[in-house]
Structure formats: C-alpha cells, structure tokens
Amino acid sequence: MKPNYICCVGITLQFICGHLWKSHIMIIVSLLGYIFHLNPDNKILKYTDLSVNILLSSKAMFLEKKR
C-alpha cells in the first residue's frame, strides 16, 4: 500500500493542537498515527497504533463517566 498523505495532513494539525494545548496524549497519538500512515504495510505499527488509540479512548471515556 502507498502512504496515506491526506491522513498525515490531518494528523499534523492534531499534533499542532496538542502542542498548543500542551497535551502529551494528543502528541503521542498523532506521532504514532503519522508513523503508521507513512508505513501502512507494517503490521506492528498498525496494531500498536490501534491499541494505543483504543486504550486512550477508553481511558478518556471512563474518566468522563466519573464526573
């Protein structure tokens, strides 16, 4: 598969917002996504990116329910 440059542009904007808001989680997720979308054939990157996204999304969901 070819690298997905359209997704990389969106991820770059997410990285900029994470930097402006000083959100380490947004920066980590955007860097993993950026690396994965440049190397879409790498299965290790694919599942690492997917698992980190699921883990952090679930964590955010549970923290929001506690409020």
How are the elements arranged and paired?
Layout (H helix, E strand, L loop, with lengths): L4 H16 L3 H15 L4 H24 L1
Helix pairs in contact: 1-2, 2-3
What can you see in these coordinates?
It is built from three helices and no strands. By secondary structure, the protein is an all-alpha fold. It has one domain. It is flat and about 45 Å long. The termini are far apart. The mean pLDDT is 91.
Which properties best describe this structure?
single chain; mainly alpha; 67 residues; flat
Rounded to the nearest angstrom, the radius of gyration is 13 Å
Oligomer: single chain
> Quick one: biggest sheet?
none
Range of strand content: under 5%
- The total of beta strands comes to 0
Q: Percent range for helical residues?
A: over 70%
- On the 0-100 scale, what is the average pLDDT? 91
**Number of DSSP helical runs:** 3
Elements, N to C (H/E): HHH
- Assign the structural class, choosing from mainly alpha, mainly beta, alpha/beta, alpha+beta, or little secondary structure: mainly alpha
* Inertia-based shape: flat
**Alpha carbon gap, first and last residue:** 43 Å
Number of domains: 1
Instruction: Note poorly predicted spans.
Output: none
